[in-house]
Amino acid sequence: MKSNKDILEEILNKLDNMTYISPSDIPNIELYMDQVTTFMDEHLKANKRNSEDKILTKTMINNYTKNRLLPPPAKKKYSRQHLLLLIFIYYYKSLLSFADIENILKPIIQDYFFAKNNPDISLNEIYRQIMELNIDNLTDIKKDLIAKFDKAQNTFKGATCKSHEQLVLFSFTSELLFDIYLKKRIVERISEYLSDDEEHTKK
Q: What superkingdom does the record give (predicted)?
């Protein structure tokens, strides 16, 4: 059985091995749906929890379009801008509802999906800077994980060795889940603000 320290080390190594799609990897040509799903699967397969998991399917893409997360394709072809949005959706969908994702992406789609809408900055540049920000934050995230683990190590000191390992892991997991819960609520509040702001603009 793995020790808690082994589990933490494995998690940290997994973070180091996570893959991100560089803007330079995204083709400048339009793609059909099959090509889009293949592209996403090839570039994000290292992030799968299980090897049989699908990064993106045709049904998913159709659902994103139906729920207004993704603009419809032009003549069944998806542009570079579509791919950029699909990558954002990939990261958001495990935590947020479609309604929240729509609220968050809607102003970006309206102002930046079509280059002519905002010539000062492209969707590609937005993606590049967001990804750089996230990669830069990875060091702080790893430090935070280690700090949370160290705090958890100091809990339940009166327990037996086996119970202590079990309870420390539960403490560590609970710390992470509470952190996710709080940040999810913050993002949901931002989503509500964006939705309220849009309704106010319409009036």
A: Bacteria
